[in-house]
Amino acid sequence: MEIQIRKISIDDYGYDPPHTELLISNNDFSARREEYIDDSFWLNFGIELQSFPKNLKDEVVFGFGNAESDNPIFLRAFVYDSVGHSALEVKITRQSSPPYSASAHFYILCEVATLNLLGKELELWIKSGQNDFIFRTNDN
């Protein structure tokens, strides 16, 4: 797993969320997207990931709605079997007319501890005020 987040530009007056670039990969597939994302979304996602899973049906979602909605960035941590194996669902879209539309949808199989660590690292990154975030593991 590799996740890179870079704040490309930040509104000096604080009116607009940072212009952010996300690159995410499971080593076989990857997706990249630029979007305006408020730091609170990363912080909340990180905090929720740290206590994931609360039970076998627990999910932690970054984005709005569900994977079928028109979110430009949708991430979902979930448990996919009865013994607690987990994955991160990744769906990145660009809603536009052809030939400018694009979509990537894949899964990253990972240990629960990896998702917990990702959450902690996201929280530390947002609280640090740094512009760049890199998270790499040997998980699929």
Report what the structure shows.
It contains 2 helices and 8 strands; from the N terminus they run E-E-E-H-E-E-E-E-H-E. It has a single domain, classed as Transcriptional Co-activator pc4, Chain A (Roll). Helix 1 packs antiparallel against helix 2. The model has no long low-confidence stretch (mean pLDDT 92). A 4-stranded antiparallel β-sheet has the order 3-2-1-8, covered by helices on one side. Strands 4-5-6-7 form a 4-stranded antiparallel β-sheet. With 140 residues, it is α+β, with helices and mostly antiparallel strands. The radius of gyration is 15 Å and the shape is globular.
List keywords for this structure.
140 residues, alpha+beta, Transcriptional Co-activator pc4, Chain A, four-stranded antiparallel beta sheet, 2 helices, 40% strand
